[in-house]
Each structure stands twice: as C-alpha cells, then as structure tokens.
Amino acid sequence: MSSRQIKWLRQQLEAKKPKKQENLDDIDPVNQTNETPDLSVLINEDSGEIPEVPQMVVTAAPPPPPPPKKNKKTKRNSYDEELEFASLLEASQKVAEEKAAHENKFSMQKLNLVRELKTIIKTNHFDDCLKLPKSSASIRFMSKLKKWPNNIPQFFNFVSDSNNNYKVEYTEYGEQQSSIYRALARLNDAEGIMQLGQSAHFSPPVLPILCQSLLFQREFESATEIALRGLYILQQSLPSNFVPMKSKLLVSPARKDFLDLIAFVARFAFRRCCFETSLSLWKFGISLTDDDPANFLLLAAVPALYAEDREWVEEMINSEITWREVPIRYIPDWSITLALMKLPDDIESLSNEMSKWPFIFEDLGLTNDIEVTPFLSSLGSAFRRRITKYLEKPELDSLLETCAIVAQDIDMSEEQAMALSFWYGVSGDDVEIGDMVEEFVMPTG
C-alpha cells in the first residue's frame, strides 16, 4: 500500500469519528467508531488510480415548530355584558331609523320654499335662507334672512312623551299673542289685526292676513317674506329629536294653530307655483296626526296632481287611511286625481270616475241624476275649481270630451252607491270649504 493510499485511508477514518466526546477507556484504539472501514477503495498499488472522494450533502435543519397559542381568558362581569348589549341595541335602533328614513324618501329640505322658488322667478333676494351651517341638525332646513332680528321669540313649545310623540303648547309669548289676536278676531277688527302684525312680526295667527293683503296689492316679494317667517317659526318649533314622518302631535292646546301654520305656507307655495314644496308641506302635515283635525286629506290631492306625484297618490289610495271614517279612495279628489294622471294612455279610468261623480263634471254634458249631500256637493265644487287650470291644458281638451262621451254608457251604480254610503252620515259644519280654494284665500288683485 502506498503512502498516498494510507494517508487517504487515515482521512476517512478521521471523518467517521463521532463528534461527541466519550470515555477514552471505551474507545477501541484501532477501530474507534466500532465500524468496519470500507476497504473496497483500496486498490492495487500498481494501478495508480486515485479513489473518488464522495460528496457530503448538508441539509438545513427544519424550522422549529411555532409555540402553542395560549388561550387568554378575559374576565367579563355582568356590567360589561349589559353595557355591550345596550350599545348593540342602540346601534340596531339607529340602523332601523336610518333605514326607515331612507324608505320614506322624505327630506326636511323639501320644505324650504326658496329652493323651488329660485327656479321659477330667478331671484336671489332670499338666498340667505339657503345658507345652512354644516353642523346643522337634519331637522333644520332654512336660515334667517339677514334683516330679521337675531332673537326671534318662540311661539310654540313641543313637550315630548315616552314614545317620541309631542304635545304642542304655547310659550308665554305665544299665549300673549294668541289672546290678543282672538280678542281682535271676535270684534272683527281687521285694522287692529293689521296693526298687531306690524309689531308682532313672527306671530303665526296674523301672518296669513298680512300675506293676503300684500298679495292683493301684488307685493309678491313682501308676501314671500311673510310666508318665510311662518316657515321659520315652523322649523324653530321642532325639537332636534323630532323624527319626520314618524313623530305624532297629540291632542293639545296649540296643535291646531301649528297645523294651520303649515297649511298657510303650503297654500302660499301653491299660489307661487311651487307645487313640489306645497305637496311636501301637505305630506308633512298629514304625517303629524292620525285624526286629521285640519282636514289635510281634503286638500293634498290637488297639489299632488300639479306636482305629478302619481306614486304617492296611488300609495294613499291603497292605504287604510280614512277621513272621518270615509276611506280615502272614496274621496272624489283622490280617485279623480289618479285618473287624470293616467291620461292619455288610459281614458277608461277617468270615464269611470265621471260616471261615478257626474255632479263634478256637469259642464262636460254629464247628467247628474244622483242625490248627494250638500257637504259633498260643496267639496266637489271646490275640487273642480282647484283643478280648473290643470284641465285647461290644450292636450286635455279632446281627451276630456272623449271620456265624457264614454262615461254616459258606463254603469257605475254599484260603486257609486258604495261611495255615497260613506258620505251620508258625515257632517262638515266645521269645515271651511272656502278656505280650500287657494285663489280665494290668497287673491292677487
């Protein structure tokens, strides 16, 4: 064996020695690993071949396993659970309110007369009313005119109950002004009422009279300012937690005066051709009560016709709402309004309505052979007067004549008898029919 082969064999033996130190007494001095060396690599001295050194493969050690997660136990007492439940309940109620508001599709901004008026008469005189602060509550919809006083006395006071409904009461200022107005009204002292209006600029009872006088003198901008005063009083009265289209006004001393204020602004908006604003005010007013003490259900259909809000009219007719136990679908204003909205595609609906309510369309040649109560007859006359301008549209001339001819051959006796049966017991002694016609209440000279 050559010296080179011996050297190589020695290296092989050294490589196979264990790294762990052991007791020297236990180690075989000849074969320290207790393994038989591989002598197959030894070859003949004369061959001259050098054995090939095997390659050692070094593999990386596997990563250590992640430490086990410790389950942290949090201590929660009953107080924490109750607090969390309360917060979840509050969040749920908030989501429900937001959803209801979205479904109602009603914004208090629709009550601001100036928004629609600007598009009609192109005026900037009342732009101050549109400048709301960014931090304003959602119930706010207008600001004051700069020439108005900084401190406007509050006339109404809303007192809430546990269900977010309200009683409307007079403030001390409101009680004082109401007493003075009622005394002057009993004396039929028109001059005294006008003088009261010159000093009490934000007293709801005198605002309609001031506005009527200014309209008759064709002082339209001054009359508009009077109406905006009424609108501001309306906004000022509503508490911040008032929920539009949901909160109700309970029977209370000042409720009727508050509803009359809404009616005043709604009529004025109609006279200024702000039909969408007028309708929004009527919608808002209807939502405030269940008993309709101000008879808004007898007034709201016509503004809906001019505003072309067919969806709302259909919704009202299909509802269970009644006026003094008369279903809304049997109030002529509503069913005729819907039939007019269906023209020109559907003439049958209007023909049926003409046959059912012939006393409203006598001028079209229909024969009135039914007996109606004086009150229902007066309602029909007021309604017909209110829709006169609408019926004067050129495109309706031939359609109305056609519907009247078709109506003469339609038998609606059963539906007619059903509708009239609801009206026979209705007393309208407390309903001011004349106040229903906007041009009678607010003439323009």
Automatic annotation (TrEMBL):
Residues 13-23 have a biased composition (Basic and acidic residues). This is Uncharacterized protein. Residues 1-38, 51-77 are annotated as: Disordered. It comes from the Eukaryota.
